[in-house]
Amino acid sequence: MTYKNSTFKAFRVEEENGSYIGSVKEMEFSPLDKEEILVKVHYSSLNYKDALSASGNKGVTRSYPHTPGIDAVGIIEKSNDPTLKVGEKVIVTSYDLGMNTDGGFAEYIKVPSQWAVKLPENLSMKEAMVYGTAGLTAGMSVLRLTELIKPEDGKIAVSGATGGVGSLSVAILSKLGYHVAAITGKETEQDYLINLGAQEIIVRSEIEKLDKKPLLKPLFAGAIDTVGGEILENIIKSTASMGVVTCCGNVASPKLDLTVFPFILRGVALIGIDSQNYPMKYRAMVWEMLSDKWKPKQLEDTCFEITLEEVQQKIALMREGQLKGRTILKVTA
């Protein structure tokens, strides 16, 4: 196999005396295995899991040097799978990409063809990465919520509303006609959330300080929770009869201190969202919905664009909770 260039650029994280240092390096190509594809990456995006990988979290990435980036979109340059052709545009998100397989913070990725979804016609490559894993997760959450809860049933809470999953959930639900109550700890971002479609802003401390009773006054018909911990506990306890709550994150805490009362006295359903190994059949369906009926008019308002050279700085800001919306990485002009 020959390549147009002998090397390509990648943001590599290396371990040096117990510290993890990221920088742009020149990498050599390696041969494709059976049913693998080589994708020339046009865009990637920055996720919290990437920040963990770049910081040496062995629960995410076991060995270094490593290229993070759990999201990528680009054009197939080589293919060992007859179902995917050279020149086709594909999205690759989650699975093991960017964790223990070199990820999208590079000009090229080499991945199993089973990880790739063909880019929907109504979606640009940039838009695909404004969504990325965060958008896929938001879409999966919206899909499960809207199966059981309709706009007329009442308001929907979205926690972590200025984050990637949260902000996209707010925008999608608003487009679908739901009354969205955005929960955030960033009081200065209320205008941003209203622009996304939130009709109500709830300061995070108001949810955190709710009574410790096993059941609380019903406030929501449903919710999309992205943070876990005490926020999720109080959302569940404040969900009305036959309500639905989806959960996809644990940045606040992976633990819940609850009784069974919300579930057996109100019939509340708690649905977990796993975007990493989501079945391809449903993954493709969600991407189609994101490209058409669910696409917010203000989709690109949720993103900020960076280059490979700026990745390290943005990772530090993400670890400090200083980013909002989506940060996308433009890899190929």
Task: Explain what you see.
- With 333 residues, the protein is α/β, with parallel strands linked by helices.
- The protein has 2 domains: 7-119 and 298-330, Alpha-Beta Complex (Quinone Oxidoreductase, Chain A, domain 1); 133-272, NAD(P)-binding Rossmann-like Domain (Rossmann fold), CATH 3.40.50.720.
- Helices cover 27% and strands 28% of the residues.
- The chain contains 9 helices and 15 strands.
- It has helices at 48-54, 125-148, 164-175, 190-196, 204-208, 229-237, 261-264, 280-291, 311-319, and strands spanning 7-16, 19-28, 36-46, 71-79, 89-93, 108-112, 116-118, 156-158, 180-184, 200-203, 220-225, 239-247, 269-272, 303-306, 326-330.
- The strands form 3 sheets. Strands 3, 4, 5, 6, 7, 14 and 15 form a 7-stranded mixed sheet that branches. Strands 10-9-8-11-12-13 form a 6-stranded parallel sheet, with helices on both faces. It has a two-stranded antiparallel sheet with strand order 1-2.
- Helix 1 (48-54) packs across helix 9, helix 2 (125-148) packs across helix 3 and helix 2 packs across helix 8 (280-291).
- The longest helix is centred in the middle third of the chain and has 24 residues, at 125-148.
- The radius of gyration is 20 Å and the shape is globular.
- The chain starts with 6 loop residues before the first strand and ends with a strand.
- The mean pLDDT is 93.
